[in-house]
């Protein structure tokens, strides 16, 4: 049943997940907060589901001078347009949308009943998907697109992807295949067929021997490697001399070897990427990307959702439902 939503002028009040400071789950609070109306080029969204990502836990564990506490975590959301700011013509009240955003903004992140975001960071949800499914796509999808962009590879070149069975790897493999790249990924033996279904040309067994297995398939090494499993230097032997290593999280200084180029994805720089979000939507609708939900949680259960994600092995993203 389609929900009827009406625009409300002025501010609104709604539930939000916040971190009071650095620390463990004890600093997570559920509060009522006031949300401003959208300004020019912005929309206000009634959030139905917000994705849970590894960055949510890191936000409360690692000191960052750009974070102002209390802060609302969350990098992607799906919901309904509640109101539109001046100059926004792509959306109407009630439209079902998904959005990418960052907790580093003054307005905070996605895990709240209402959020205000630039319209350029919002697109229609893929047809036939639920809010819960769509909530796991925007930030991870943009991360995948940016990682591939940073490799600067051309059709026919070889890309390795670690953590092949994971959500981010799935999106990355699908996007790489769309560009005509040859993809080799790692997986547990029982998940090899799953990773092949994502589009990987070659699948090697994950573990300490995976770089040797890649070298057996490509003796000269791969042209680039996107490290969704955060193996860092353990993955370097798979890369050719002068090849490219892509980190999907901020890392401390890494020792270079064999002229390997090291690049890092910083998603906040590319969140206002309407074209990229539309491409991701189209890839879901065409079947190139399959959206999976690893668990549905109430806001009060956000610590449980983070723990489930940190434990590993999920083949989807947990989501918070508002």
From TrEMBL:
Q: Which GO molecular function annotation, any one, does this entry have?
A: oxidoreductase activity
Q: Does the keyword Protein transport apply?
A: no
Its keywords, alphabetically, are: NADP
UniProt domain Enoyl reductase (ER): residue ranges: 23-320
* UniProt xrefs under Pfam families: ADH_N, ADH_zinc_N_2
Which SUPFAM superfamilies is this protein grouped with? GroES-like, NAD(P)-binding Rossmann-fold domains
UniProt cross-references to CDD domains, sorted A to Z: MDR_like_2 (cd05289)
Q: Does the keyword NADP apply?
A: yes
Protein name (Swiss-Prot/TrEMBL):
NADPH:quinone reductase-like Zn-dependent oxidoreductase
Name the lineage.
Bacteria, Pseudomonadati, Bacteroidota, Sphingobacteriia, Sphingobacteriales
């Amino acid at each position: 049943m389609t929900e009827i939503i009406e625009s409300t002028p002025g501010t609104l009040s709604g539930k939000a997940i916040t971190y009071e400071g650095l620390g463990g789950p004890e600093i997570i609070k559920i509060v009522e907060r006031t949300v401003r109306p959208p300004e020019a080029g912005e929309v206000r969204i009634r959030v139905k589901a917000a994705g849970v990502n590894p960055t949510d836990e890191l936000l409360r564990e690692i000191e960052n001078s750009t974070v102002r506490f209390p802060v609302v975590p969350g990098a992607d959301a799906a919901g309904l347009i509640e109101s539109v700011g001046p100059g926004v013509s792509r959306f109407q009240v009630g439209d079902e949308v998904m959005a990418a955003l960052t907790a580093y903004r003054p307005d905070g992140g996605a895990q709240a009943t209402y959020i205000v975001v630039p319209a350029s960071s919002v697109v229609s949800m893929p047809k036939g998907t639920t809010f819960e499914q769509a909530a796991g796509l925007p930030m991870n999808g943009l991360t995948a697109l940016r990682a591939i962009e940073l490799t600067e590879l051309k059709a026919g070149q070889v890309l390795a992807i670690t953590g092949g069975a994971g959500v981010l790897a799935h999106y990355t493999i699908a996007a790489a295949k769309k560009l005509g790249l040859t993809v080799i990924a790692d997986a547990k033996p029982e998940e090899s067929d799953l990773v092949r279904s994502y589009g990987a040309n070659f699948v090697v067994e994950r573990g300490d021997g995976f770089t040797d297995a890649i070298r057996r398939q490509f003796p000269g090494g791969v042209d680039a490697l996107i490290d969704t499993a955060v193996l860092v230097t353990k993955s370097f032997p798979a890369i050719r001399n002068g090849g490219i290593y892509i980190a999907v999280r901020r890392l401390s200084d890494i020792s270079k070897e064999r002229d390997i180029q090291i690049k890092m994805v910083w998603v906040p720089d590319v969140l206002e990427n309407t074209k990229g979000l539309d491409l991701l939507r189209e890839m879901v609708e065409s079947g190139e990307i399959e959206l999976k939900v690893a668990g549905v949680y109430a806001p009060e259960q956000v610590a449980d959702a983070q723990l489930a994600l940190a434990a590993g092995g999920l083949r989807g993203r947990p989501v918070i439902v508002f």
